[in-house]
Design a protein that fits this description.
The complex is a heterodimer. By secondary structure, chain A is mainly beta. Chain A is 0% helix and 53% strand. In chain A, the strands form 2 sheets. In chain A, strands 2, 4, 5, 6, 9, 10 and 11 form a 7-stranded mixed β-sheet that branches. Chain A has a 4-stranded antiparallel β-sheet with strand order 1-3-8-7, with no helix packed on it. In chain A, a hairpin with a 2-residue loop joins strand 5 (42-50) and strand 6. Chain A starts with a strand and ends with a strand. Chain B has strands at residues 4-5, 11-14, 19-25, 30-38, 45-51, 54-58, 61-66, 71-76, 85-93, 101-102, 106-111. In chain B, strands 2, 4, 5, 9, 10 and 11 form a 6-stranded mixed β-sheet that branches. A 5-stranded antiparallel β-sheet of chain B has the order 1-3-8-7-6, with no helix packed on it. Chain B is globular, with a radius of gyration of 14 Å. Chain B starts with a strand and ends with a strand. Classes of the chains: A mainly beta, B mainly beta. At the A-B interface, strand 5 and strand 10 of A face strand 4, strand 5, strand 9 and strand 10 of B.
Chain lengths: 114, 112
Protein backbone atom coordinates (compact mmCIF):
# COMPACT_ATOMS: atom_id res chain seq x y z
CA UNK A 1 0.00 0.00 0.00
CA UNK A 2 1.46 3.37 -1.01
CA UNK A 3 2.27 5.79 1.80
CA UNK A 4 1.41 9.43 2.23
CA UNK A 5 2.87 11.59 -0.51
CA UNK A 6 3.54 15.30 -0.35
CA UNK A 7 4.48 17.68 -3.12
CA UNK A 8 6.64 19.56 -3.60
CA UNK A 9 9.35 18.30 -1.26
CA UNK A 10 11.23 21.60 -1.23
CA UNK A 11 10.08 25.13 -1.87
CA UNK A 12 11.73 28.54 -1.70
CA UNK A 13 9.56 31.65 -1.62
CA UNK A 14 10.00 35.30 -0.72
CA UNK A 15 8.13 37.32 1.87
CA UNK A 16 4.67 38.37 0.81
CA UNK A 17 4.18 35.53 -1.66
CA UNK A 18 1.69 32.73 -1.21
CA UNK A 19 2.24 29.00 -1.41
CA UNK A 20 0.13 25.87 -1.91
CA UNK A 21 1.23 22.48 -0.63
CA UNK A 22 -0.36 19.19 -1.61
CA UNK A 23 -0.92 15.93 0.24
CA UNK A 24 -2.22 12.59 -1.01
CA UNK A 25 -3.28 10.30 1.86
CA UNK A 26 -3.09 6.55 2.04
CA UNK A 27 -5.82 4.93 0.01
CA UNK A 28 -8.97 4.57 2.09
CA UNK A 29 -7.97 7.20 4.65
CA UNK A 30 -10.46 10.03 4.93
CA UNK A 31 -8.73 12.15 7.58
CA UNK A 32 -5.85 14.43 6.65
CA UNK A 33 -4.06 16.54 9.24
CA UNK A 34 -1.45 19.21 8.68
CA UNK A 35 1.39 20.12 11.02
CA UNK A 36 4.14 22.71 11.11
CA UNK A 37 7.51 21.61 12.46
CA UNK A 38 10.20 24.11 13.49
CA UNK A 39 13.27 23.71 15.73
CA UNK A 40 11.93 26.25 18.20
CA UNK A 41 8.30 25.18 18.52
CA UNK A 42 8.46 21.54 17.52
CA UNK A 43 5.53 19.92 15.79
CA UNK A 44 2.34 21.98 15.94
CA UNK A 45 -1.11 21.03 14.71
CA UNK A 46 -2.52 23.25 11.96
CA UNK A 47 -5.84 21.66 11.01
CA UNK A 48 -7.62 18.43 10.19
CA UNK A 49 -9.96 17.63 7.34
CA UNK A 50 -12.37 14.74 7.21
CA UNK A 51 -14.69 14.08 4.29
CA UNK A 52 -13.99 17.54 2.83
CA UNK A 53 -14.85 19.32 6.12
CA UNK A 54 -12.45 21.03 8.48
CA UNK A 55 -13.02 19.29 11.81
CA UNK A 56 -10.28 20.74 13.97
CA UNK A 57 -8.09 23.80 13.81
CA UNK A 58 -4.93 24.71 15.68
CA UNK A 59 -3.85 28.10 16.89
CA UNK A 60 -2.55 29.61 13.66
CA UNK A 61 -3.50 32.87 11.93
CA UNK A 62 -6.02 33.01 9.11
CA UNK A 63 -3.18 33.19 6.56
CA UNK A 64 -3.04 29.41 6.92
CA UNK A 65 -5.91 27.64 5.21
CA UNK A 66 -6.65 24.31 3.70
CA UNK A 67 -9.15 22.21 1.87
CA UNK A 68 -9.87 18.60 1.07
CA UNK A 69 -11.20 17.18 -2.15
CA UNK A 70 -13.68 14.37 -2.68
CA UNK A 71 -10.83 11.91 -3.30
CA UNK A 72 -9.41 12.85 0.17
CA UNK A 73 -6.41 14.66 -1.30
CA UNK A 74 -5.72 17.84 0.60
CA UNK A 75 -4.02 21.15 -0.01
CA UNK A 76 -2.89 23.80 2.41
CA UNK A 77 -2.29 27.40 1.49
CA UNK A 78 -0.25 30.05 3.22
CA UNK A 79 -0.78 33.61 2.06
CA UNK A 80 1.41 36.67 2.64
CA UNK A 81 4.39 34.60 3.66
CA UNK A 82 6.54 35.73 6.58
CA UNK A 83 10.10 34.70 7.45
CA UNK A 84 8.75 32.79 10.44
CA UNK A 85 6.74 30.52 8.16
CA UNK A 86 9.95 28.75 7.18
CA UNK A 87 9.38 25.22 8.42
CA UNK A 88 8.79 21.60 7.55
CA UNK A 89 5.10 21.12 6.77
CA UNK A 90 3.91 17.61 7.45
CA UNK A 91 0.75 15.93 6.37
CA UNK A 92 -0.63 12.89 8.16
CA UNK A 93 -3.43 10.61 7.10
CA UNK A 94 -5.58 8.30 9.16
CA UNK A 95 -8.96 6.64 9.12
CA UNK A 96 -9.92 9.17 11.79
CA UNK A 97 -8.01 11.54 14.04
CA UNK A 98 -9.82 9.83 16.89
CA UNK A 99 -7.51 6.85 16.25
CA UNK A 100 -4.10 8.20 17.29
CA UNK A 101 -2.39 4.88 16.72
CA UNK A 102 -3.32 4.94 13.04
CA UNK A 103 -1.81 8.24 11.96
CA UNK A 104 0.80 8.02 9.20
CA UNK A 105 3.00 10.95 8.24
CA UNK A 106 4.31 11.94 4.85
CA UNK A 107 7.91 13.06 4.26
CA UNK A 108 6.99 16.72 4.50
CA UNK A 109 7.51 19.83 2.39
CA UNK A 110 10.47 21.98 3.42
CA UNK A 111 9.44 25.64 2.94
CA UNK A 112 12.07 28.35 3.06
CA UNK A 113 10.92 31.97 3.07
CA UNK A 114 13.56 34.54 2.10
CA UNK B 1 5.16 26.34 30.47
CA UNK B 2 4.40 24.13 27.51
CA UNK B 3 1.82 21.37 27.88
CA UNK B 4 4.43 18.76 26.98
CA UNK B 5 8.07 19.12 27.94
CA UNK B 6 10.84 17.11 26.32
CA UNK B 7 14.59 17.66 26.55
CA UNK B 8 15.88 18.29 23.00
CA UNK B 9 19.31 16.76 23.74
CA UNK B 10 21.33 15.69 21.88
CA UNK B 11 21.74 12.47 23.80
CA UNK B 12 24.87 10.59 22.75
CA UNK B 13 25.36 6.96 23.82
CA UNK B 14 27.62 4.08 22.80
CA UNK B 15 26.24 1.16 20.84
CA UNK B 16 24.63 -1.42 23.12
CA UNK B 17 23.63 1.08 25.82
CA UNK B 18 20.18 1.31 27.33
CA UNK B 19 18.58 4.59 26.35
CA UNK B 20 15.95 6.39 28.40
CA UNK B 21 13.86 9.13 26.79
CA UNK B 22 11.31 11.07 28.80
CA UNK B 23 8.49 13.56 28.61
CA UNK B 24 6.47 15.36 31.24
CA UNK B 25 3.06 16.87 30.72
CA UNK B 26 0.58 19.05 32.53
CA UNK B 27 -2.81 18.15 31.02
CA UNK B 28 -4.48 15.45 33.08
CA UNK B 29 -6.98 14.84 30.25
CA UNK B 30 -4.35 13.10 28.13
CA UNK B 31 -5.17 9.41 27.74
CA UNK B 32 -3.27 8.40 24.60
CA UNK B 33 0.51 8.44 24.68
CA UNK B 34 2.64 7.92 21.59
CA UNK B 35 6.30 7.83 20.69
CA UNK B 36 7.38 8.69 17.17
CA UNK B 37 10.78 8.26 15.56
CA UNK B 38 11.88 10.75 12.94
CA UNK B 39 14.93 10.24 10.78
CA UNK B 40 16.56 13.18 9.07
CA UNK B 41 14.58 14.41 6.05
CA UNK B 42 11.70 12.05 6.84
CA UNK B 43 8.32 12.34 8.48
CA UNK B 44 7.69 10.90 11.96
CA UNK B 45 6.73 7.23 12.18
CA UNK B 46 4.74 5.78 15.06
CA UNK B 47 6.92 3.61 17.26
CA UNK B 48 4.86 2.91 20.36
CA UNK B 49 1.32 3.63 21.45
CA UNK B 50 -0.16 3.32 24.93
CA UNK B 51 -3.60 4.00 26.25
CA UNK B 52 -3.77 5.25 29.86
CA UNK B 53 -1.16 4.03 32.35
CA UNK B 54 1.17 1.07 32.33
CA UNK B 55 3.95 -0.49 30.33
CA UNK B 56 4.11 -1.75 26.79
CA UNK B 57 6.95 -3.70 25.26
CA UNK B 58 7.79 -4.24 21.59
CA UNK B 59 11.11 -5.88 20.87
CA UNK B 60 13.89 -3.64 22.13
CA UNK B 61 11.45 -0.82 22.95
CA UNK B 62 9.47 -0.34 26.17
CA UNK B 63 7.05 2.50 26.78
CA UNK B 64 6.00 3.47 30.29
CA UNK B 65 3.26 5.83 31.38
CA UNK B 66 2.91 7.15 34.93
CA UNK B 67 -0.20 9.27 34.96
CA UNK B 68 0.08 10.06 38.66
CA UNK B 69 3.41 11.80 37.98
CA UNK B 70 2.42 12.97 34.48
CA UNK B 71 5.59 11.35 33.16
CA UNK B 72 6.18 9.03 30.23
CA UNK B 73 9.31 7.19 29.17
CA UNK B 74 10.66 5.24 26.23
CA UNK B 75 13.45 2.75 26.86
CA UNK B 76 15.60 1.34 24.08
CA UNK B 77 17.64 -1.74 24.94
CA UNK B 78 20.79 -2.75 23.08
CA UNK B 79 20.80 0.51 21.15
CA UNK B 80 22.10 0.44 17.58
CA UNK B 81 23.55 3.16 15.34
CA UNK B 82 20.38 2.76 13.24
CA UNK B 83 18.41 4.04 16.27
CA UNK B 84 20.02 7.46 15.78
CA UNK B 85 17.07 9.75 15.13
CA UNK B 86 14.83 12.29 16.81
CA UNK B 87 12.24 10.80 19.15
CA UNK B 88 9.02 12.72 19.68
CA UNK B 89 6.48 12.05 22.37
CA UNK B 90 2.86 12.90 21.65
CA UNK B 91 -0.28 12.93 23.76
CA UNK B 92 -3.96 13.17 23.09
CA UNK B 93 -7.16 13.36 25.09
CA UNK B 94 -9.76 10.64 24.61
CA UNK B 95 -12.62 13.02 23.94
CA UNK B 96 -13.23 16.43 22.54
CA UNK B 97 -11.19 17.67 19.62
CA UNK B 98 -8.61 14.83 19.42
CA UNK B 99 -5.84 17.33 18.66
CA UNK B 100 -2.50 15.71 19.56
CA UNK B 101 0.18 17.66 21.41
CA UNK B 102 3.79 16.88 20.62
CA UNK B 103 7.01 17.34 22.54
CA UNK B 104 9.84 19.12 20.75
CA UNK B 105 11.72 15.85 20.29
CA UNK B 106 14.99 14.44 21.66
CA UNK B 107 17.88 13.92 19.27
CA UNK B 108 19.54 10.56 19.92
CA UNK B 109 22.97 9.64 18.60
CA UNK B 110 24.20 6.07 19.00
CA UNK B 111 27.86 5.83 18.11
CA UNK B 112 29.61 2.56 17.22
Amino acid sequence: KAGVTQTPRYLIKTRGQQVTLSCSPISGHRSVSWYQQTPGQGLQFLFEYFSETQRNKGNFPGRFSGRQFSNSRSEMNVSTLELGDSALYLCASSLSLASPNEQFFGPGTRLTVL
Amino acid sequence: QKEVEQDPGPLSVPEGAIVSLNCTYSNSAFQYFMWYRQYSRKGPELLMYTYSSGNKEDGRFTAQVDKSSKYISLFIRDSQPSDSATYLCAMQASGGSYIPTFGRGTSLIVHP
